[in-house]
């Protein structure tokens, strides 16, 4: 017999996402009940400040100062963890909930990227379910697609743009010709940013998400430490404009693929063709591209952050729990996930290099020599008109390995005609 008793929620965290969840539970109570076959009710809530005006009435719910105490309450079935942070109260509350037999729904990618393997194992041992749709790509139901709809495929590659803040900043820089700082503030106002914004602009948040997708896609233990990470802080308006002139746009792109040398996971700014679906992504939008042996390529696009889209994903998990759906956190039991050998930048690519070059005879020859010594071959090169003695030079290389580019960068740094730091950005022909 299906359970028709209300599914009782305790919500820890009433910020952007938590408030969004409260709103959906209220606004769609009847619809949710019809879909789940039982009512979904909020019993208790917890946050730091009880008195904060959150724009929703929370007086009707029990208040708990301590999210761990809330997680242990006998009158809740599900802890909805929306506080954030890889450790501290979020981890303690999730562990307490699992230990006391509660299901958990979380949007917390940092927590899962660092402790997902242990938490999934603990949930399975306790006979509870741990779900995290909202943790990856906001409103896009990518976890559901990978664990359910694509379960019949061997996944060969997962890639995408998975951080709304970075995509917002990069696309708005190009559209408005404003600098990084002004646009960072705009993203902040939209509720996209993590509590520590360095997680966003440093590529760490997107790296967390990629490591979670890689685990599901390849049946491997989450290995965030093996993600090669690079953020967007080095990207200047000049790079964005140069890329645009060459028919590219700069995206913080994540790629996970199983290669002959092991699992490659990288999250870094890349030039992608402006006309490609990834190149056309605007604002806080995310895109995840999945390749499977039977299905071919799937492209999923949607809002990657913000109150409504993220709460939508949380509620998808909650409704699944209300329906009694029991799927392992990473698509197979935690004990079956295997460790993957990390493969660093296994697949070669062309690179965009921007440097400032002293304008004197033989300077370009010295650059060509430094690149040649590292085994890097030049495809195209252009020097812009300039007023002073330093010329901006753009080089597009033929395909080469990351190790060769690193060696070339070292060589260029030792070449006196090259002034300042050379910028190197991978070109991904998606
Ligand atoms: N914002 C977004 O677009 C997305 C966010 N996420 C993830 O969702 C989670 C929540 O994000 P978001 O809503 O933006 O975060 P906010 O910073 O807006 O909200 C965090 C909430 O957690 C509460 N909180 C923080 N620390 C504690 C604590 N020690 N004890 C009790 N409550 C605490 C805060 O309380 P108080 O309000 O009183 O300060 C606040 O209500 C994070 O894991 C984030 O990574 C995932 C996808 C998208
Ligand atoms: N800070 C994240 C929120 C969504 O995970 C982003 O900007 O994408």
Automatic annotation (TrEMBL):
Chain ranges of the ACT domain: 352-426
Enzyme Commission number: 1.1.1.3
InterPro entries: ACT-like_dom_sf, ACT_dom, Asp/hSer_DH_NAD-bd, HDH, HDH_cat, NAD(P)-bd_dom_sf
Keyword field: Amino-acid biosynthesis, Methionine biosynthesis, Oxidoreductase, Threonine biosynthesis
Signal peptide: none
Pfam families: ACT, Homoserine_dh, NAD_binding_3
SUPFAM superfamilies in the cross-refs: ACT-like, Glyceraldehyde-3-phosphate dehydrogenase-like, C-terminal domain, NAD(P)-binding Rossmann-fold domains
Domain of life: Bacteria
Enzyme class: oxidoreductase
Pathway the protein acts in: Amino-acid biosynthesis; L-threonine biosynthesis; L-threonine from L-aspartate: step 3/5; Amino-acid biosynthesis; L-methionine biosynthesis via de novo pathway; L-homoserine from L-aspartate: step 3/3
Family: Belongs to the homoserine dehydrogenase family.
Name this protein carries in UniProt: Homoserine dehydrogenase
Source organism (scientific name): Sinisalibacter lacisalsi
């Amino acid at each position: 017999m299906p359970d028709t008793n209300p599914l009782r929620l305790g919500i820890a965290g009433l910020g952007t996402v938590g408030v969004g969840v409260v709103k959906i539970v209220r606004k769609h109570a009847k619809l949710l009940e019809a879909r789940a076959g039982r009512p979904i009710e909020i019993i208790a809530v917890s946050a730091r400040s009880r008195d904060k005006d959150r724009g929703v009435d929370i007086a009707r719910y029990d208040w708990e100062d301590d999210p761990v105490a809330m997680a242990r309450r006998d009158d809740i079935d599900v802890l909805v963890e929306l506080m954030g942070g890889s450790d501290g109260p979020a981890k303690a509350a999730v562990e307490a909930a699992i230990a006391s037999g509660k299901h958990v729904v979380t949007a917390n990618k940092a927590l899962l990227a660092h402790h997902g393997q242990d938490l999934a194992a603990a949930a399975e041992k306790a006979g509870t379910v741990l779900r995290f749709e909202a943790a990856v790509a906001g409103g896009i139901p990518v976890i559901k697609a990978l664990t359910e709809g694509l379960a019949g495929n061997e996944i060969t590659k997962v890639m995408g743009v998975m951080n709304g803040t970075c995509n917002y900043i990069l696309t708005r820089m190009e559209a408005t010709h404003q600098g990084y700082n002004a646009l960072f503030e705009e993203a902040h106002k939209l509720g996209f940013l993590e509590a520590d914004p360095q997680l966003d602009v440093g590529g760490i948040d997107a790296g967390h998400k990629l490591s979670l997708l890689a685990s599901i896609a390849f049946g491997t233990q989450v290995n965030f430490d093996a993600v090669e990470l690079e953020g967007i802080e080095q990207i200047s308006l000049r790079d964005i404009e140069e890329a645009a002139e060459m028919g590219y746009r700069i995206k913080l792109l994540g790629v996970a693929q199983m290669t002959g040398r092991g699992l490659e996971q990288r999250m870094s700014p890349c030039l992608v063709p402006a006309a490609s679906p990834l190149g056309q992504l605007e604002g806080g939008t995310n895109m995840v591209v999945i390749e499977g042996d039977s299905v071919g390529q799937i492209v999923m696009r949607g809002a990657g952050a913000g109150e409504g889209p993220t709460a939508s994903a949380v509620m998808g998990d909650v409704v699944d729990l209300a329906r009694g759906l029991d799927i392992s956190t990473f698509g197979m039991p935690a004990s079956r996930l295997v460790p993957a050998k990390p493969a660093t930048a296994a697949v070669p690519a062309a690179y965009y290099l921007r440097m400032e070059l002293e304008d004197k005879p033989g300077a370009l020859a010295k650059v060509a020599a430094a690149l040649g010594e590292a085994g890097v071959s030049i495809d195209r090169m252009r020097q812009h008109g300039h007023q002073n003695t330093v010329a901006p030079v753009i080089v597009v290389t033929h395909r080469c390995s990351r190790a060769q580019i690193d060696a070339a960068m070292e060589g260029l740094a030792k070449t006196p005609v090259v002034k300042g730091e050379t910028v190197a950005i991978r070109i991904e022909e998606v």
